[in-house]
Amino acid sequence: MGVIGGMGPLATNVFYDMVIEKTEAERDQDHINMIILSHATMPDRTAAIKEGKTDEIFEKLLKDARFLEESGACCIAVPCNTSHYVLGWVQENVNIPIINMIDEAALMVKEDVGSGIGKYGEKVKIGVMATDGTIEMGLYQKALKAQGLEPVVPSSENQKKVMKIIYEGVKKGQPVKPEDFKAVADEFKEKGCAKALMACTELSVYKIKEGLDDYYIDAMEALAKKAIEICGK
């Protein structure tokens, strides 16, 4: 398995732990061979999307993907949701599969909620917690709608809290104010969301650290499961 990581480093570390924990193994040799390329100097993805300057992100991701392909990887996992905005173009230029975390997470949500149809025939609502870039590009909104679900994004005020959790909390290694997370969670529940999707790998880190319950579905978990499957484990 090839991994383009470092976006951020802590999230990549959690992804590696997740793959190890979810691989059925009784000895070292039962685990998956991995090449983890921690590209921590990759420009900020959300900033690039907002400024309309994604060419550099694309070129660097493509270079990394080609390196992993040439190094013998059978597939590539990228534990960064926002980067998926350009990964489709990267996929067109390499010959091994780049796992689409967005699609895999939406599929996992659908499997979790069942038919996707509520008690009165309405579509099941799913809250989406993600970076501004992921939200503005509609990455998860499109994927969830494709599964027959109704995505719900935070209000502008609460979206600022999500960004604060990601950038001022997890990425900086600083404590997250519980009231910031609670405000977003409460909004989802008030709007009737059956589940909330942690659609940023920093939020995946937060979910594990805080021991959040199964109301919160982790997109990175879907990526790990698919990567293990592709690698024949």
From TrEMBL:
<dbReference type="InterPro" id="IPR018187">
    <property type="entry name" value="Asp/Glu_racemase_AS_1"/>
</dbReference>
<comment type="similarity">
    <text>Belongs to the aspartate/glutamate racemases family.</text>
</comment>
<keyword id="KW-0413">Isomerase</keyword>
<dbReference type="InterPro" id="IPR015942">
    <property type="entry name" value="Asp/Glu/hydantoin_racemase"/>
</dbReference>
<dbReference type="InterPro" id="IPR001920">
    <property type="entry name" value="Asp/Glu_race"/>
</dbReference>
<dbReference type="InterPro" id="IPR004380">
    <property type="entry name" value="Asp_race"/>
</dbReference>
<protein>
    <submittedName>
        <fullName>Aspartate/glutamate racemase family protein</fullName>
    </submittedName>
</protein>
<dbReference type="Pfam" id="PF01177">
    <property type="entry name" value="Asp_Glu_race"/>
</dbReference>
